[in-house]
Amino acid sequence: xxxxxxxxxxxxxxxxxxxxxxxxxxxxxxxxxxxxxxxxxxxxxxxxxxxxxxxxxxxxxxxxxxxxxxxxxxxxxxxxxxxxxxxxxxxxxxxxxxxxxxxxxxxxxxxxxxxxxxxxxxxxxxxxxxxxxxxxxxxxxxxxxxxxxxxxxxxxxxxxxxxxxxxxxxxxxxxxxxxxxxxxxxxxxxxxxxxxxxxxxxxxxxxxxx
Length: 210
Description:
By secondary structure, this protein is mostly beta strands. Helices cover 8% and strands 63% of the residues. It contains 1 helix and 12 strands. An 8-stranded antiparallel β-barrel has the order 1-2-3-6-7-10-11-12. The protein starts with a helix and ends with a strand.
């Protein structure tokens, strides 16, 4: 009996230490994703925040993004004297990510609290890739012929940095706005912070304190 009571007390003490009331929150956000050299798309994220202090917290998150064409390439069409025709070698991009990182509130207390954050995580990128050929017609003009697209996928690591504002609405609910800059670490898109391996996100959402 004494051992059972002691076990219960230990579990309760550990729970209160690891998951104290008011020290964590769940964030729901949605917005735009805008890869460089591409059309913008939509993105959504669910994030769990664990506050170590009133200004510093750790987080884990999962998100999903979708956008269309990628990599606005240009070629020179000497026959039609057009130097700025656009090529889209990829389309139908979907990106699933699992991230972990930290957030620091720079300005507190304030009506809108300013924060910065950084994270690293795993990404699964899937998209449709096309082979494109420049064909010369009998009348002297040129046109592009796209082959049937084939789906490709990549397993990537990426880093992100962000800045945003949090505004307290009630004792449990906050509203937030955030901007993020992301880049792939191991993509074939020519390395870190390259035009083809970097994308930005603009989020608005809610934060619920547990």
